[in-house]
Design brief:
The protein is α+β, with helices and mostly antiparallel strands. It has two domains: 39 residues; 45 residues. Strand 2 and strand 3 form a beta hairpin. Helix 3 runs parallel beside helix 4. About 11% of the residues have low confidence. It has a three-stranded antiparallel β-sheet with strand order 4-1-5. A two-stranded antiparallel ribbon has the order 2-3. The protein contains four helices and five strands; from the N terminus they run ββββαβααα. Helix content is 39%, strand content 15%.
């Protein structure tokens, strides 16, 4: 599954706006990944991996998407992750990148 992160993507006659999700074979979207119009969409919790799956799922944006968020949203997400947000945008992205890399290991995802 892929998520549109820039512009509008057309695939098999359908248009997908920024934030939309769609399935496609990698061979059909490799150029879109390379040009950063889409990203691989990876849910934090997979269906069937949790006894509470019927609750609303939480998804983490990739570090690339995090870097494009407003400073206020970045700070909010870092605080939600129980991290003290850095004042500098590059440092916040570094904090989040480390968190993103380790959260799956801690949660067994």
């Amino acid at each position: 599954m892929y998520q549109v992160i820039k512009g509008i993507v057309k695939h098999e006659g359908a248009s997908y706006r920024k934030g939309s999700l769609f399935d496609a074979p990698h061979r059909d979207v490799g150029h879109l990944l390379k040009d950063r119009y889409i990203q691989k969409y990876e849910p934090l919790v997979e269906e069937g991996d949790s006894d509470t799956f019927d609750e609303e799922l939480e998804f983490l944006p990739t570090p690339d998407v995090f870097a494009k968020l407003s400073a206020a949203k970045q700070r909010e997400m870092l605080k939600d992750a129980e991290l003290e947000p850095a004042g500098n945008a590059d440092e916040r992205v570094s904090q989040y990148t480390l968190y993103y890399a380790t959260v799956g290991e801690e949660d067994g995802v």
